Each structure stands twice: as structure tokens, then as C-alpha cells.
Amino acid sequence: MALILTEEQNMLRESARDFLGTEGPVSQLRRLRDTADATGFWPPLWKQFSQMGFSGVLVPEAQGGMGLGYVEAGIVMEQIGHNLSASPFLASNVVATTAIISAANTTQKAFWLPRLATGGAIATLAVDENAKHQPSKIALSATPTAHGFVLNGSKTFVLESHVADLLIVAARRAGDPGDLEGITLFLVDPKSEGIEIERTAMVDSHNAGRIRFNQVNVSSEAVLGQVDGGWAPLSAALNAGRAAVSAELLGVADEAFGRTVQYLKERKQFDRLIGEFQGLQHRAAHLYCELEITRSAVASALAKLDADPSSAGESVSIAKARAGRTATLAVQEAVQMHGGIGMTDEFDIGFFMKRARVLQELFGDSNYHLNLLAQQRGY
Amino acid sequence: MTETVDLKAFRQEVRSWLQANCPPEMRKPISHEDDSVWGGRNAKLSAPQKQWLLAMASRGWTVPTWPKEYGGDGLSHDEAKVLAQEMAALGCRPALLSFGIWMLGPALLKFGTEAQKLEHLPKIARGEIRWCQGYSEPNAGSDLASLASRAEDRGDHFIVNGQKIWTSYGDKADWIFCLVRTDTAKKHTGISFVLFDMTTPGVSTKPIQLISGKSPFCETFFDDVRVEKSNLVGTLNGGWDVAKYLLTHEREMIGAMGEGTLPQSMIQIAVSAAGKDELGRLADPHLRSQIAEFDMDEAAFHSTLSRFGELVKARQAHPAMSSMLKYYGAELNKRRWELIMSAGGTDALEWESDRSSHGGLARAWLRTKGNSIEGGTSEVQLNVIAKRILELPGA
To answer: How near does any CA of chain A get to the CA of B282, in Å?
Structure first.
């Protein structure tokens, strides 16, 4: 299992870095926010991004994708983190695509994978129901009817939901919240009767939404995978999302750190560059170490997902927990070391702090994953 | 990952050789420091220890990657990894622990003359000579280059006078590799790297008792010690380059130091002291989350050691990354032992009973406090990172 990039992967990294740095920089996110953009991402960017093949990274070549793995998806995510590019890549091409690849039948795959790979359709996973991530506590109910099921309940923090063409809804067909058995995944058209989507503008100016399901009828063909057997594909999709978010957090942290080190070499106070002060040097050097060690944890989780996803859970939790911690430290140090200018909206560094805060919560924060790690290790 | 046919065959060969040659007693973890083999003229080895060392040294596997003419087996990086994996799988302990292998050997391979390599490396590989390191002085700790031990040029030899401190196992070593001042007008460029026998007239040592109650370090005194010029490694006044190279190896070594020898895991210690709750979780919830956080960082650090190995192999590693490994590894190990003490409660505080293996936990805990001081303090490592990796001004 390799933890450093191959030549091909380095080329992918450079191409993602150049493209997003030019076409999807932080200034674009600022413009989307300032104009209260209805889409929430920049459609021409998304189109070009898809044309370059990035949106099909995980989709097999037979279905129009690149047929690559999570290491490659992580490479793209890290560059998204560096540039804070708003895009449906994470929700649609990593999380939802993984759910479909893990559990969909041939018909479902043939319909959705080519559309997702080309970016022509956007899919998203609806899992959280409370303010803290607790996927086993799903309560949204799926009650059998003559032709299928009827869904009742609500979801929150659903990425890109107001522009999605497909919702993958985690519902409870049997059992009680907390049970892993009885969870069923459904492919749901967001325009179905009884669905209300409220776009929620978040602190990081990215897209999420709250969804109400009020007597929503779905056919039995809408079931993704096995009835009551949704926990396995749900976990696969969440783990893919967690590893990808870890890579994005690494990119966010690395960029905030790089900008800060640069600032330490430019800003003068007391007739000296502030980077000459040992108080700041040691904090920067410590942060460098934290970043390098987190980079290893993220690389390890992505590589394990490619090698054997069923045993990657522990590595994924370690990566997500650590990337959350490291990014939190990096963005706080960034604002502090930039001083007053770091507190201004005009300066970009605050965007990194906001994004890191959201990514920390997404698919379980550090505390959630540390608890999971302790459980997995039997204490 | 698929292994080449050659490597697969090699793995098979290693496995059967280890099964045939590693005595059963050597397939158990080292239980305490006196149970480990450091070699040297005065070493007292048990029969299985002797047998295992002889077998490994004859194959060149105490130093598997060194060339055959110097006592190694000329293995590639991948083959050496296979050997390490197979030893771990069988539970074979290392046949020989040695500063000669970890520190002096790599420096001699890079800077030594052919005669020096042929004289010293095979004896290191066979565990015949035990080495110690003469670096720090009472007034040259973190600022190592200000060292004052003097070597005066007397034509074909030097006369060395001065004092070293923190010489690891100085009282047990046969030879010393030592930094001495050969030019008093310059700092870094006035230092030379010399080797000499600890039985040379004028060399004496005095053990230093640590807060752990043990004495792994010595003060070492040089009083008109004669050192032949053939024992100068590298150029005259060029010793700092040798020392820096060797220090990276030392930093990686201390950084990679594991849990040492624990009879029980941290969790077992914590559970026996604090118990579990009705859900099977460690009953002390705050300790539980601290241990989980430690486990996370330890796993990430292990991934970093693997990644660093890959970077070195691909020639992409920044040389100062060893400072990161030293810094983080030392701090992590200190944290581990703070948690072990917390997990063990009052049982871990016993200092002398047989029950506590004579204060095994408490003494090991205290010893780790030196991890962030020896081999360059944590603060010095952060200085190195700030200067050489981040290129911060005035660092």
C-alpha cells in the first residue's frame, strides 16, 4: 500500500491544482456569496470540471467514468480544499456515487452512473436528522404500501439538496433508532409530491438544505440494495465521504498554513519581520508537523479504501478525527498570526476558518470518530 | 500489493531459515533491559542469546543492508523489509542492539576510509565491539557546536583533553566516537570526529543517576588521551558534517522508539485499575477519550514513518524531516507514559516491590522525560524545522 503519489497521480494533482486555482479560486466563492447566487456553485466551472473527467473519477470506464479510486478522488478533494471551490463533487461524485456502486442493481447503475460521471445529474445522500451526526439513529420512516413505500420524516444538512436531481434517502423500515438492522436506502426524485426542500445558507457559503418528507410515495424499484440491509452501503458511502472530507480538510489546512508562513515573511513589526520571533516560529514548526502527520493518516485511509473498503473503517475514523483537529488548529493559528487583518471580511483567510468548521461537522466530528475508534478497539 | 517472484522466494527462504535458526527463547519479547543484547567485550550472554547472535551475524542479518565485505548481506530496501516483517511475524527479537549499527555504521559507510570500514564495521556487525557516543559536554548541550574538548595535533597523533556528559552506557562501551575541537578560532568548522578505545590510558567514566533511579548515562573524562590520526573520520575540522549526518540517524531512532516493553497494553492496565461500565466502555470516560486521542496520533505517526520511508526511497524526503520525527515521536512517547501512569493509578506508583517489577512503570515513565532532551531538545527540532523547512527569517 503506497502512501506517496505515483507519477500519474502527481499529474492528476497538478492538473486539478492548475484548473481549480485558475477557474475556481477563493474569489469565486466570495462572488457566489456576495451575489446570493441561486445555484451556489458556478455552472461553467462545474461543466468544465466534468469535461476534464474529474466528476467521473470513481465511475467505471464502462459507464463513462475514469475508473480510478479513492486516492485519486482524494487528490481532487485536496485541491478543492486549497481553493475552497464550491462544487457538487463531494456529494454527487464521491458519496452518492459510492452508494450506487456499492448497492445499485444493473438497471439503476446503467441509468445513474453515466449521468453522474458526466456531471449531467447531481445526486446527494440524505442521512442526518439531528444537529450531530448519528447515522444509526435514523428515524425517518418507510412504511410498506401496495406498490412500494411511503416516507415520513425529515433530514438536515443535505449537501447540494436544492439543486439535486436525485436524493439517496436513508430511511427506517424496521426496528428503532439506534438499530443497524432495518435501515433501507431509497432513490428519490426531489420533485416528488410531499417533499419540501429549504436551502440553508451556511457559515461557509456552501450549499446544504433541510428536507421535509410528508407522505412521500416511492415505488419498490426505488429501493437501493436490500430492504432493511441499508447499513452496509450507507457505511460505505459515509466512509468514502469521510475520507474525502479529510482530504479536503488537509487542503484547507495546508493552504491556510502556507498563506500564514508567507505572511510571517512579509509583515514587519518592531522593525523586524514577525517570522523572526521564536514564539511564532515554534508554533509554525509545530503546525508543520501536525500537517505532515495528518497527511499520512489521510493517505493511509484513502489507500485502505482502495485496497479493502470493508476493513478501512478504523483508518477512516483516524483520518477524519485528525484532519478535523489539525485543520481547526491551522485556521485558528492563521487568523491569530495574521492579526487584525485576519479578522476582516475583505481578507480571504476567514473563509478557510469557516469552511474548516463545516467540514469538521460533516459526516461526524473528531469526537464522534474518536468514540468510534475506542469502540472498534474494544474500550 | 503483489510481490515480485524473487521477493516471494526470498520471503520463503527467510521464513524457513528463521524457523530453523531462531531459538524459542529468542521468540519472546525482551522483558527488561538486562535481558537485551548489546554485545561488546564484556557482554554476558545466555546460551540462546549467543546462538541467535552468531546465527544472525553469520548471515549478515544484524546489518542486512550493509555490503557483505563489511559484515552485512547486501540486501535491498525491499528485501530488508521482508526480513523485518518475517522476524516480526515469528516474534523474533533483534539479535543485537547497537549504537554501532544505528549511528556510527551509517556515518562510517559514508565518511570512513576503506581501512576504517574494514576494521570497524565487521566487529559492529558481529557485536564484538560496543560503541558509545561522545557528543554533549557540560557547557555544550543544545548548542552542541560550542564543545570544548580539545585534540592537540602532535604529528602522527592527537592528545585529547576534556569532558563529555550524557554518554549513553559509557561505562559499558569498548570504543567511543567522539567530537573534539581541533581549531579554537572557529566554531562549526573547528570540530573533528575521532574514534578511540575506552581502555586507552586517561579515559575514565562516572555513571549519572537519573530521576528514574537508573544510570544509563555517564560523565566521561579525557586526560591526555592519545588518539592515532588514522582514527580521524572525515577531514580535519570537517567533523560537524559527520556529526550532522549521524544526528539525523539518531533523531530517527529516538523518534521511532516504540512503547518499549510493556507486559500489558495501556488499555489492559486501565481496565484492571478503573473497570468497565455497563456498555463495556472504560469506566473513566475522560481517560477513555484521552487514550483514543493518543491511539489516533500514534496510528497517524506510524503511517508517517511508513510514508517517510517511501519518501526516502523515492528521494523526495526533505533532510530536516527527521527533526519532525524526533520531535513528534519524543512528545508522543512522553504522552504515552503519562497515560500509562494515569491508567495504572496507585499500582503504577510502586518503586521497589517484585509485584511492580521494581517500579518498572514508574521508572520507565520517568526515563521518557529525557526523550525530548536527548538527541536535540524538542525546541531545537522546532528551530531546525523553522529554519530549514519553513525558511523563516532569522531562524
So the answer is: 6
pLDDT in tens, B243-263: 988 887 777 666 555 444 566
Q: What CATH number is associated with residue B152? A: 2.40.110.10
What is the Cα–Cα distance from A236 to B3, expressed in whole angstroms? Answer: 28
Please write the tens of the pLDDT for every residue from A139-154.
Answer: 999 999 999 999 999 9
Residue (of B362, B334, B378) closest to B142 by Cα position = B378
Q: Contact A265/B288, CB-based, under 8 Å?
A: no
Shortest CA gap A25–chain B (Å): 24
> Please, which pLDDT band fits residue B233 given cuts at 50, 70 and 90?
very high
- In chain B, the residue whose alpha carbon lies closest to the alpha carbon of A284 is B386
Which amino acid makes up residue B388? R
Sequence length of chain A is 379
B318 contact residues in A (CB cutoff 8 A): none
Q: Are residues B275 and B305 in the same domain?
A: yes
Residue A14 near chain B (CB below 8 Å): no
To which H or E segment does residue A125 belong?
Answer: strand A123-126
Q: Does A178 touch chain B (CB under 8 A)?
A: no
Mean residue pLDDT of chain B comes to 92
Where in chain A are the domains? 7-121, 125-229, 232-376
Provide the pLDDT for residue B262.
Answer: 63
- The Cα–Cα gap between A89 and A73 comes to 9
pLDDT in tens, A214-241: 999 999 999 999 999 999 999 999 999 9
Asked which of B49, B72, B97 is the last residue of a domain, the reply is B97
Closest residue of chain B to A326, computed from CA coordinates = B297
Give yes or no for residue B1 having a pLDDT over 50: no
Mutate to test the interface with B, among A259, A267, A271, A293 (most CBs of B within 10 A): A293
Q: Are B71 and B125 in contact (CB under 8 A)?
A: yes
**Closest to B87 in 3D by CA, of B129, B59, B45:** B59
Interacting residues of A224 by C-beta distance below 8 A, sequence separation 6+: A99, A100, A103, A104, A108, A168, A185, A186, A187, A230, A233
Contact (CB<8Å) A297/B303: yes
Tell me which residue in B289, B321, B393 faces A265 most closely, judged by beta carbons. B393
Beta bridge partners of A177: none
Are the C-beta atoms of A12 and A72 separated by less than 8 Å?
yes
Query: What is the C-alpha R_g of chain A?
Result: 21
Query: Are B163 and B220 a contacting pair, CB within 8 Å?
Result: yes
| Percent of residues, chain A, with pLDDT higher than 70 | 100
- B251, B271, B307, best to mutate vs chain A, most A CBs in 10 Å: B307
- CA B197, chain centre distance (Å): 21
* Domain range for B176: 131-239
Mean pLDDT over residues A93-119, rounded?
98
Cα-based angle A67, A365, A283 (whole degrees, multiple of 5): 100
User: Domain A232-376 class?
Assistant: mainly alpha
Cα–Cα distances in Å, from B157 out to B151, B160, B200, B227? 9, 10, 13, 6
Query: At a CB cut-off of 8 Å and minimum separation 6, what does B189 contact?
Result: B183, B237, B238, B240
CATH top class, domain A7-121: mainly alpha
What predicted TM-score, i.e. pTM, was given to this entire model?
0.89
Given a contact cutoff of 8 angstroms between Cβ atoms, the answer to whether B95 and B38 are in contact is: no
Here the ipTM equals 0.95
- Say if residue B285's pLDDT is above 70: yes
Compute the distance between CA of residue B41 and CA of residue B128 in angstroms, rounded to an integer.
6
Of A4, A276, A285, the CB nearest to B393: A276
Q: Is A126 helix (H, G, I), strand (E, B) or coil?
A: strand
Q: How far apart are CA B261 and CA A130, in angstroms?
A: 45
